[in-house]
Amino acid sequence: MATKTAPDASRRSERSRRAIYDAALALIGEVGYARTTIEGIAARAGVGKQTIYRWWSSKAEVLLEAFVDLGERNMAAAAEASGVDPAEARALPDTGDLAADLKNVLRATVDELNDPGFEIPYRALAAEGIIDRDLSARVVEQLLEPGLQLYVARLRAAQETGELRADLDPRIALELFLSPIAQRWLQGTGELSHAYADTLVEYALGGLAPR
């Protein structure tokens, strides 16, 4: 008699988790954060809501984890396309040319923010964060801060090589080029392009006063 192979529970769980991520991101983009529910996510993913509650306690946790996963997938895809080891891709490039490195990273950020698959659900989550300060704090902690720390590390490395002043605060300095991108994206006050990202780096590193 042929021996039956038991179903792979881990593989089934991973498929369900992936379906839940995709459903959560799709729903928040379609109906907004406030109208997205655990029941709706479960129905969209084709799982029971008890499956979701077994892994997460709220829709905020589902959505935040889905965004973290989306970011990791985007990073892995970019690393594969450029032939870079995924572990190395988590750090900002350090070629010895700070301006070029920052421009490359900011261009990738612009591309991500212009990608409907990322932009639509993220914009809905950002809008809700203006009202729900607790959600906003969690978005900063889980989604934004890990990436900001990569900038801090790269700017500190530039300080050590003399490319930047030793007395500046890297955490404040990074806001000179990241905050304008976020503001333009949120408010739609102008085109979000590679040229705009490059200009921000040049202004931030070169200063505005005549030399």
From TrEMBL:
Listed InterPro entries: Homeodomain-like_sf, HTH-type_TetR-like_transc_reg, HTH_TetR, Tet_transcr_reg_TetR-rel_C_sf, TetR_C
Residue range(s) of DNA binding per entry: 37-56
Where in the sequence is the signal peptide annotated?
Answer: none
Keyword set for this entry? DNA-binding, Transcription, Transcription regulation
Question: Domain of life here?
Answer: Bacteria
| Keyword DNA-binding in record | yes
Hydrolase listed as a keyword: no
**Residues covered by the HTH tetR-type domain:** 14-74
Q: Which residues form a coiled coil?
A: none
Among Pfam families, the record links this protein to: TetR_C_11, TetR_N
PANTHER family, A to Z: HTH-TYPE TRANSCRIPTIONAL REGULATOR RUTR, TETR-FAMILY TRANSCRIPTIONAL REGULATOR
Question: Per its record, how is this protein called by name?
Answer: TetR/AcrR family transcriptional regulator
